[in-house]
Amino acid sequence: MNKLENSISDREKAVFELGIKLGSLFHQFIGTPVSSRTKNSLEKSIEESISNQPFVNSVKVNIEAGKKYNALKPEQIKAKISILYNETRAKGEIEYIEGKDYPLMQIDEVKKVSQN
């Protein structure tokens, strides 16, 4: 166990894990071939891939794919991820912001939950 382990809160750890998962999802899959025919299977593959990582509670991916084949672009992907670290849940999302021409990754909620 490292020296900082006890000084970092579960809230901080949950938010850190959320950021790692959002960045991983975005950078790992941008450029993946996609079309309207393969959109659903790619969404499911991304969800399952990210779900394999520690602390992931849920993943939902939506891809806006055209009818023709292309490489997945930042403006085509929307994703929501929920992390559960001990009794802290952190939720966040990736959404392309047209006015900023940027794929924004943000924290939507962090709260204490009870595990049953």
Structure description:
Keywords: Lyase. It catalyses: 7,8-dihydroneopterin = 6-hydroxymethyl-7,8-dihydropterin + glycolaldehyde. Belongs to the archaeal dihydroneopterin aldolase family. Its EC number is 4.1.2.25. Homotetramer. By secondary structure, the protein is of the alpha+beta class. It is 28% helix and 36% strand. The model has no long low-confidence stretch (mean pLDDT 93). The longest helix has 20 residues. It contains two helices and six strands, in the order αβαβββββ. The protein starts with 9 loop residues before the first helix and ends with a strand. It has a single domain, classed as 2-Layer Sandwich (Pantoate--beta-alanine Ligase, Chain: A,domain 2). 19% of the residues are buried. The strands form two sheets. The chain has a four-stranded antiparallel β-sheet with strand order 2-4-5-6. The chain has a two-stranded antiparallel sheet with strand order 1-3. The radius of gyration is 16 Å and the shape is elongated.
